[in-house]
Specification:
homodimer, mainly alpha, 2 domains
């Protein structure tokens, strides 16, 4: 039971205060345990796919007793959905780093007029975005392979699982909106379509790239593809 | 055991001829059974993912006894690999229909000079290819949903399964080469990169689209994305 979801209690005596503190401590420990179980669920998805998620497999992966996972998560679906939400938050975090850099670059382009770009400034935006996006792709292909594998597993799951489908849709909509906001600096009109094409191509490059061992990844090819895509979108 | 893989026997008497004919009949029946078992394996993959493939699940799906699936396929890996090969052949068949139409369109463009396109002919190629490709995408999203789901499942499997990975790579290489040959009619130089971007974006549109029930598919949006991609590649 979480203290946070209840009305804050009015503390009157020292004894009561200590009782409340104890509840809060239990709750913090509970949150930590829930997090560990969710992370174990994601590990199971990396190794055995969403199909592999069972309370037993998750408890084994987390190194906790079965009764603990069933205490925090009523069923398998609950585990999968919470894992997706956690994963989507991680994705937002990854994307936030990329967006922060992109906006920083835009701020540094002196004399940039959003609605009336000179071809020189348009080229500057292309150069900054294509470099950032290809670095981001290659970074992910080297260091976020599990994240990409889980993304694929959830996409697969979204075909049959209506709850995961809704979570996936809203996660993806936010992602496309973020990219679309960036695209608007170059082209107002088709920003949404450009952003969706970009996200599709980019994510599929990740999904294909993760099938290749890191040492065999053809960085030059990925760079060429990303640069070309950004060129098309911006120039 | 297949007769086809052995040296053709020299038939000397009618009795021997009838024995050979019987062997051939058994082999034809065997081939048919193998095909049914492989199709059942693909059905299992559609419903339960590659993780769901077991001899038991496949025998149940095919409506045959367990000993039959273990007679034709020595283990689970054998089932998965044969299913992928069968699936890739189906994909080639789908793609062949598309390519045939594309080349037919090209032949009908009178006065087309491959190495010196007029802007009018370039536009004609864009119009023909974008219409064909978006029709193909929407057809697949409506009528080839199982095929798309299996494609995704195999892509997932390729991350961890080296044999599926190699099969996937050679299947994909052939696909990109086919598209690249088409791209060369417009741009010789970047045909391979253009083709790979196109295949990435196209397949990811299929993978996202298949998460949406047929009645909710936004055909106009998919058309706009495909037209834009082909425009970028050709114009």
């Amino acid at each position: 039971m979480s203290v946070g979801t209840k009305k804050a209690p009015q503390i009157k005596t020292m004894g009561e205060a200590s009782k409340v503190r104890k509840n809060i401590e239990i709750s913090e420990k509970g949150k930590q345990r829930k997090k560990e179980i969710i992370e174990a669920t994601i590990e199971v998805i990396v190794h055995s796919g969403v199909q592999g998620v069972t309370h037993r497999a998750v408890a084994l992966e987390a190194g906790v007793q079965l009764r603990l996972t069933t205490y925090y998560f009523k069923d398998k679906e609950d585990l999968i959905n919470e894992a997706f939400i956690y994963f989507a938050e991680e994705g937002k975090f990854l994307m936030a780093g990329f967006l922060e850099l992109a906006y920083e670059h835009l701020e540094n382009l002196s004399g940039l007029e959003k609605n009336n770009l000179t071809s020189k400034n348009r080229k500057k935006i292309y150069e900054a975005f294509s470099a950032l996006a290809s670095d981001f792709l290659i970074h992910n292909l080297k260091h976020e392979r599990d994240h990409i594998a889980v993304q694929q597993a959830f996409l697969n799951e979204a075909i049959k699982n209506p709850l995961v489908r809704e979570l996936h849709k809203s996660h993806r909509k936010r992602l496309i909106n973020n990219v679309s906001e960036l695209c608007k600096f170059a082209n107002k009109e088709d920003a949404e379509i450009n952003a969706e094409i970009f996200v599709n191509a980019f994510e599929k490059m990740e999904h294909e790239g993760v099938c290749t061992p890191v040492k065999n990844i053809d960085e030059k090819k990925y760079q060429a593809m990303v640069h070309k895509l950004v060129w098309w979108m911006i120039m």
